[in-house]
Amino acid sequence: MSPDLRRRFASAALIVGVFVFWELACLVFGISSLILPRPSEIVGALIEYAHGIWPHAAQTLYTTLTGFAFGVMIGLALGVLIGSSRLAYDTAYPLLVGISSIPKVAVVPIFVLWFGAGTVPAILTAMIICIFPIVVNVATGIATVEPELEDVMKSMKATKLDILWNVGLPRAMPYFFASLKVSVTLAFVGSVVAETVASNRGVGNMMMIASSSFNVPLVFAGLFVLAALGVSLYVIFSLIERRVVGWAMRKAI
Amino acid sequence: MMLEKNLKPATVEPLIRFDRVAVTYGGGAEATEALTPTSLSVPEGDFVALVGPSGCGKSTILKLAAELMKPSAGDIYFGGRELGAKPVRVGMAFQSSTLLPWMSIRDNVMLPLKIVPPFRGQWRRKRGGEFRDRADALLEKTGLIDFADKQPWQLSGGMQQRANLCRALIHDPDLLLLDEPFGALDQFTREELWGTLQELWMERTVTVLLVTHDLREAAFLANRICVMSPRPGRILEDRAADFPRPRTIDMTFEPDFAAVIQRLRGLIVHSREGAR
């Protein structure tokens, strides 16, 4: 068995093992499904309520991706600005750190106050939660261009824009994609939190309703859906990352 | 300051001339003098090596020539006019090859054509044809043609430095500025690259300023060697290295070559002791 295959096998075995252990532990200790449903019950609930879950999952995916898309645009723009100018960096960084240290959950009520309950607060929460990692990573990538390389470019009388376009941005791409993988999972946190607090749609809302009617397997089914969505997006961005910035991992493109 | 006769017949006006140029970093009580008023003129097509202890302002001279910094005092002239009056085409290479890892070797070499006018305006039209041929011709010359489509990290340090030289030369610069380009290479690779650089220089009219720690390298490559003092830097001696070209590695073991090196070494050792 090749080391790569063995690694994959090991991580798959661990995941299966966790579920088997969970199932057995529930059976052996007789844990009520009101406290912790067995994985088989959760899968059962997933199948049983598939029709009902689907629109909620679609809603959550929609708010998350919309918020994420805005977050990426704003994060990229701010990151480029902050990374390419010392002045902008010094000026904006403290504010950015301040904003990022606010627990994002705490701003949901404000968004609800401004825009009413529903889709908009979820999108906005997803957006602001994923901006900061993108800004920091893009700015770092651009700001850490080797001084010698910058000298080589400047000796050719390259403009700031030339340097940014030909060196800064491509160089920041691996940082950018690393932050995308983090941000897309964070965006889910944002949208689900907002849905839980103030929405009548989305997986977060569905889980709230299910738990108030003690349909615990459905609550966990919601978690499974979120995990599946999060993992899928993570995988998609990893694949794009490999294609676009494979050079950073020293793979032949 | 003694300015010895140049090897090539002196042109009317040197290509680049430093006229009592000084550089001071910082201000007030903490000001550091990096370069005391220094004069140096380099005729077109000359090859000048700057040697000296580290921190003596060798690299500062290159940065001044590349317009990466301005002198605190004195003037620099290019072709008789003040530097900056018209754009000077400069090629530059450092000890680290600074090739862009996301591009193939060929694209790396072509980078200056994307930036430097007038090539810049023709980039879209010629990138697939004329410019590509131009890059390939240089890569052929330096023995890299088989690696043109490879990524930089797939090449050895010596090959990366060859590509770096190609990149510094592709836009036919008037002035080639080399800051310890071979400093990180092993002895054999370094000597190979001396040969490559000599060849490249001999077949074009580029003027070269080379900063190096290696006295053999300076004497092998340059027409003139300027020895600099420890900080604050100044030129202690400006002497010709008039060995016939093309030079070979074997020549570096002959007595008159060794004598030049010994003399340079003596000067630097002496100046270091003086500074302590």
Give the gist of this structure.
The complex is a heterodimer of chains A (253) and B (276). Chain A is an all-alpha fold.
3D structure, described in words:
The complex is a heterodimer of chains A (253) and B (276). Chain A has 10 helices and no strands. By secondary structure, chain A is mainly α. Chain A has 2 domains: 1-31; 38-249, MetI-like (MetI-like fold), CATH 1.10.3720. The longest helix of chain A is centred in the last third of the chain and has 38 residues, at 160-197. The two termini of chain A are 26 Å apart. In chain B, helix 2 crosses helix 3 (119-126), helix 2 packs across helix 4 and helix 5 (157-169) runs parallel beside helix 6 (187-202). By secondary structure, chain B is an alpha/beta fold. Residues 1-6 of chain B have low confidence and may be disordered. Chain B has a domain at 103-173. Chain B has helices at 58-65, 105-115, 119-126, 130-141, 157-169, 187-202, 215-221, 255-275; strands at 16-25, 32-42, 47-51, 73-78, 81-82, 90-93, 175-179, 207-212, 224-228, 235-240. The longest helix of chain B has 21 residues, at 255-275. Helix content of chain B is 35%, strand content 22%. A 6-stranded mixed beta sheet of chain B has the order 6-7-8-3-9-10, sandwiched between helices. In chain B, strand 9 (224-228) and strand 10 (235-240) form a beta hairpin. Classes of the chains: A mainly alpha (253), B alpha/beta (276). The A-B interface holds A 146, 148-149, 151-158, 162, 166-167, 170-171, 173, 245, 247-248, 250, 252-253 and B 63, 66-68, 87, 90-96, 98, 100-102, 111-112, 114-116, 151, 153-154, 168, 171, 177. Chain A: It is found in: Cell membrane. Chain A: This is NitT/TauT family transport system permease protein. Chain A: It is a multi-pass membrane protein. Chain A: Keywords: Cell membrane, Membrane, Transmembrane, Transmembrane helix, Transport.
